């Protein structure tokens, strides 16, 4: 299946922006931690997955208060925001979890990438469940706008994987 390949591409594009204490929202099996510097402290949360490996994991939603986890230097939101109905609440909650000058890294499919994902899911090449669970598909401009409206300064935005995915990096004031 192509899902594993796509996940690794998201990790590779995000890793250069992530450092220090890192919160991985929607961590699945915690694969991102293998791409981070050894000096990083990795914490993963997910509402669906129970990881097989031993790392700091909490089964919970990022829509809920996360203050008991402490503050973070970086937050990864990789292929997650499209599955969330209330993106504004999610982003405001994550903003509160970041240290000053903390970094939020968001990836999500583009509109064309989403259409391709649905087609590939019908062929059994990507996850049909994930494709069907998409609640929001954003243009890059819309994604930048909602991240800025949550208080972040957007320092990078671009498409990758031939325009099928998009990356936005925001910094907390």
| CATH top-level class | Alpha Beta
Q: Tell me the strand order in the biggest sheet.
A: 3-2-1-4-5-7-6
CATH topology term: Rossmann fold
Full CATH superfamily name: Vaccinia Virus protein VP39
Please provide the ordered H/E string of secondary-structure elements.
HEEEEHEHHHEE
Average pLDDT, to the nearest integer? Answer: 93
Major sheet attributes: 7 strands, mixed
Basic shape: globular
Radius of gyration: 15 Å
Number of domains: 1
Q: What fraction of residues sit in β-strands? A: 25-35%
Poorly predicted sequence stretches spanning 5 or more consecutive residues: none
Indicate the CATH architecture: 3-Layer(aba) Sandwich
Give the N-to-C terminal Cα separation: 40 Å
Number of helices: 5
- In oligomeric terms, what are we looking at? single chain
Number of E-type strands: 7
Short recap of the structure:
The protein has 5 helices and 7 strands, in the order αββββαβαααββ. The protein has 173 residues and is α/β, with parallel strands linked by helices. A 7-stranded mixed β-sheet has the order 3-2-1-4-5-7-6, with helices on both faces.
